[in-house]
Task: inverse folding
């Protein structure tokens, strides 16, 4: 048995589908929800710890991908190196959880690590190398 | 009563100058009117900080022993141009490190390039220089591998052929299948995001739309020190259609700028990497605009709601030089975080740092108020709106009927 932490992103057309329960039933997996959210674009977001046999995990996740779910491993902590951040805002549109937001008054970009699900999308998207993965 | 540069500089020297930022000027003109504002305010400071390609540095490394006429050179693995003279090098911001896989696989990450080399030099880091030469009687040496440091170089100056674009387009992606990776950052598929890149109301050339005070010789804030405009920038296009307030509705004027690298600060010069696109640099520029007359007071009071940018599809139209913009949008709308395109609400994301632009305009204001920065009247004007100068695409004349 092993556990994998994964970020599942559901496009609009999938948010009312019973994908997670099918993962449990058809692939003999257990899950622990770490975070769940429907974003403003009405895309679903689910951060799960999935436990099961390695082969079942792989089959299950491959099946979820086939259904159109975007699957990403959740592995490391993401930090912002403050001295490198220019508060440009280039990162905000890639962040699926509004962990990165721009203050419309001060034009400062805030980073709320509590909302971060470590999907790592902002890391290559920040032109200044300010978002960093801490090992 | 119009003012002259000499009068304004005299006020700077005697500590009497009234200098405000372009943001503050908006309120002053709103409260006091153009006429009073023109009488009272002497200088308006502007600022911008964002990715600016067409940036590079000239470095004279000093002669080696024995002497060497460098023909090929690399700085931390990034190719530098050695075809200027024996030991003069030019390093360009968009040059990628030679071992970079570039866009294979796509989208490539481009973590290090010429802009990062320049940032490292400014930050005082040692940079590894490797060089080759073919050897001559007067320059016998053929190989070099050494550390260099900015403080030991003879001359080191930024020399940027095109910075400070007057206005710019807004990038969207109409392709429904895939996100695109551009110099405007990641632009999400199916009109999923809109990228823009200008400080709007704080941006230098939007506060002097007809280049009445910004020309060759104008002293500016460049990456933390005093620099200068040395020519019109490449792709300078003063004939872009303008609104009634004179502000161009898209990319128009540009500046070629120069300044001493040794005096710059890495707070205002940064190497940047765009996923799937490549490397470049972000440059901080601030320009003081003298309020010579009421027109200049009016121009410098321009605000975000009066500056419009064209929305362009970067998934096809931009790359293929085709199609028309999908509409115009004001910076006030862009800054709300969402704009309407084809009836849909699209989240916007900026590339230019407004916070840094404010910092630059304020710093420049402090320099002027404390008497450390005087204004330089242009020694030659830039090509103007009536010059007929247009931005031309290449008219290809294929050789051998285009057979490759
Ligand atoms: S893209 Fe990078 S530099 Fe810009 S606001 Fe985000 S973290 Fe900061
Ligand atoms: S890793 Fe970056 S993009 Fe992903 S949730 Fe955290 S802050 Fe947002």
Result:
């Amino acid at each position: 048995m092993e556990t994998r932490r994964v970020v599942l992103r559901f496009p609009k057309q999938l948010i009312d589908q019973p994908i997670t329960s099918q993962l449990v039933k058809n692939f003999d997996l257990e899950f622990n929800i770490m975070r769940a959210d429907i974003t403003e674009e009405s895309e679903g977001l689910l951060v799960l710890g999935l436990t099961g046999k390695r082969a079942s995990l792989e089959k299950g996740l491959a099946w979820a991908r086939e259904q159109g779910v975007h699957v990403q491993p959740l592995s490391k902590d993401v930090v912002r190196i403050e001295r490198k951040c220019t508060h440009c805002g280039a990162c905000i549109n890639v962040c699926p959880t509004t962990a990165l937001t721009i203050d419309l008054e001060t034009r400062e970009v805030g980073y709320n690590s509590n909302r971060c699900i470590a999907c790592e999308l902002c890391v290559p998207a920040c032109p200044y190398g300010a978002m960093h993965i801490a090992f | 009563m119009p003012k002259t540069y000499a009068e304004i500089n005299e006020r700077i020297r005697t500590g009497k100058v009234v200098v405000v930022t372009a943001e503050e000027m908006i309120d002053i003109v709103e409260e006091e009117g153009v006429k009073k504002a023109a009488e009272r305010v002497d200088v308006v400071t502007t600022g911008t900080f964002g990715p600016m390609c067409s940036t590079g540095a000239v470095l004279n490394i000093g002669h080696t022993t024995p002497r060497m006429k460098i023909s090929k050179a690399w700085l931390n693995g990034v190719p530098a141009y050695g075809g200027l003279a024996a030991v003069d090098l030019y390093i360009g911001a968009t040059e990628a490190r030679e071992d970079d896989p570039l866009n294979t696989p796509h989208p490539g990450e481009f973590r290090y390039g010429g802009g990062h080399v320049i940032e490292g030099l400014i930050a005082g880091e040692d940079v590894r220089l490797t060089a080759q030469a073919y050897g001559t009687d007067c320059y016998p040496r053929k190989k070099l591998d050494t550390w260099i440091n900015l403080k030991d170089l003879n001359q080191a100056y930024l020399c940027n052929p095109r910075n400070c674009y007057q206005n710019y387009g807004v990038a969207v992606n109409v392709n429904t299948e895939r996100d695109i990776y551009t110099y405007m950052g990641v632009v999400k598929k199916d009109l999923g995001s809109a990228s823009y890149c200008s400080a709007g109301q704080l941006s230098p050339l939007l506060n002097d739309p007809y280049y009445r005070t910004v020309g060759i010789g104008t002293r500016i804030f460049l990456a933390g020190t005093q620099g200068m405009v040395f020519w019109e920038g490449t792709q300078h296009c003063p004939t872009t259609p303008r609104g009634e307030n004179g502000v161009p509705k898209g990319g128009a004027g540009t500046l070629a700028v120069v300044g001493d690298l040794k005096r710059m600060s890495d707070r205002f010069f940064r190497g940047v990497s765009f996923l799937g696109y490549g490397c470049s640099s972000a440059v901080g520029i601030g320009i003081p605009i003298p309020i010579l007359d009421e027109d200049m007071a009016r121009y410098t009071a321009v605000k975000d709601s009066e500056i419009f940018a064209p929305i362009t599809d970067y998934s096809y139209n931009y790359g293929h030089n085709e199609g028309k913009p999908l509409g115009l949008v004001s910076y006030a709308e862009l800054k709300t975080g969402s704009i309407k395109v084809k009836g849909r609400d699209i989240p916007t994301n900026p590339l230019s740092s407004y916070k840094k632009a404010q910092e630059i305009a304020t710093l420049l204001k402090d320099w002027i108020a404390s008497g450390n920065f005087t204004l330089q009247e242009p020694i030659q004007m830039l090509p103007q709106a009536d010059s007929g100068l247009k931005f031309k695409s290449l008219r290809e004349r294929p050789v051998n009927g285009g057979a490759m």
Summary: The longest strand of chain B covers residues 278-286. The pocket of iron/sulfur cluster (ligand 2) is lined by residues A 78, 94-95, 97, 99-100, 116-122, 131 (CB under 6 Å).
